[in-house]
Amino acid sequence: MAKNYSQNASGAAAAQGASGDSEKIRASHLLVKHKDSRRPSSWKEANISRTKEEALSIILAHEARIRSGAATLSELAVSESDCSSARRGGDLGYFGRGEMQKEFEDAAFALKPGELSRVVETSSGLHLIERTG
Hints:
Layout: H1 11-16, E1 24-32, H2 52-68, H3 73-80, E2 91-96, H4 102-110, E3 120-122, E4 125-131
Antiparallel strand pairs: 1-2, 1-4, 3-4
EC number: 5.2.1.8
GO cellular component, one term: nucleus
GO biological process, one term: positive regulation of transcription initiation by RNA polymerase II
C-alpha cells in the first residue's frame, strides 16, 4: 500500500523502451532525501533526519505546485532538491539504459519529452522526473 506513490505511468512503456541499447534521453529531477536514503546528506543539509513520510509530504507538495503551473520543476530544483544537480535546475543531461538506478531509469524512459512522472522511490530518496529530451 505504501508503494502506490512510486508506481508510475506505464511500466509496459518502460519495457518497450528497448528500441536500441544506445538510446539516450535527457531528464531533470527533484530529489527529496530522508533519513533512510542511501546517503542521508546533501548540499543543503549535512545530516538529513526527516522520515520517509515527511519526505513524501514535501515532494507531493512540490508535485502539486508543478502540476498547477505555480512553479516549474527546474525552478523548484534549484532551491529544494537534495541532489547536486540542483544548481543546474535538476538537469541530469543525457543518459542511456544502465546508467541510473533501475526504478529511476524505468520511470524516465516511460515518459515522453515534456512529461512529469509521479513520485518515484529509489534508494537515493524520492524523485520527481521530467523528461526533457
